[in-house]
Design brief:
By secondary structure, the protein is mainly α. The protein has 8 helices and no strands.
Length: 194
């Protein structure tokens, strides 16, 4: 099988589909975690350029994660509970069950943690939609920005190390700022009467 031709055909398909295709790929990945999110982000960045490739990936993955959250929260799922019990991330997912938004934020920030399980666990706790989105949107911003950067700069890490260092510092700053606001939000809600 000629993978080069397959890749060309797929890139042309995404190009012809326009922004809808760019958004749809990460939506699908949110429901089928075996699919490679990093591959979809690289495809989007290749086809649409860094800014729009990143934007479509972020929008799509946030929509997919939110739809999954809503679906599992409404339907519930014994099968999903069993997946959590068998997961190697079980101890961490238990913290999400206690509505620890900081843990959830950091898990979403890392590209290779099971986003599918994080969204599902949050849904099973009947987490407030506002709190879920407040955690999801900035953490996916950080995670997908790092994937988009990797997609655009695979060959330039060694050619321009200063650019890579600047990007890493930027990601850390965004992470710290997001964590600060998330912490303030949690403190505010703890003070409210239940």
């Amino acid at each position: 099988m000629d993978y080069g031709n397959f890749t060309d055909v797929f890139l042309k398909y995404v190009e012809q589909g326009g922004p809808a295709a760019g958004v749809l790929l990460p939506v699908i990945e949110a429901f089928i975690p075996i699919l490679p999110l990093v591959g979809f982000v690289i495809i989007n960045v290749t086809v649409f350029g860094f800014f729009f490739g990143y934007l479509y990936s972020w929008i799509g993955n946030c929509i997919g994660s939110f739809l999954l959250f809503v679906l599992i929260r409404k339907a519930g799922s014994n099968k999903f509970e069993k997946k959590i019990e068998k997961s190697k991330y079980r101890a961490t997912l238990e913290k999400i069950k206690k509505k620890n938004l900081t843990v959830m934020f950091f898990l979403y920030c890392f590209p290779f943690t099971p986003s599918f399980l994080i969204s599902g666990t949050a849904a099973l706790t009947n987490m407030n939609t506002q709190r879920f989105l407040l955690t999801l949107l900035p953490s996916k911003f950080v995670m997908l920005l790092s994937l988009a950067f990797i997609g655009q700069n695979v060959n330039s890490y060694f050619e321009n190390p200063a650019k890579s260092v600047f990007f890493i510092i930027f990601i850390l700053l965004v992470n710290l700022i997001s964590k600060y606001f998330l912490k303030k939000y949690e403190q505010y809600h703890r003070k409210l009467p239940h």
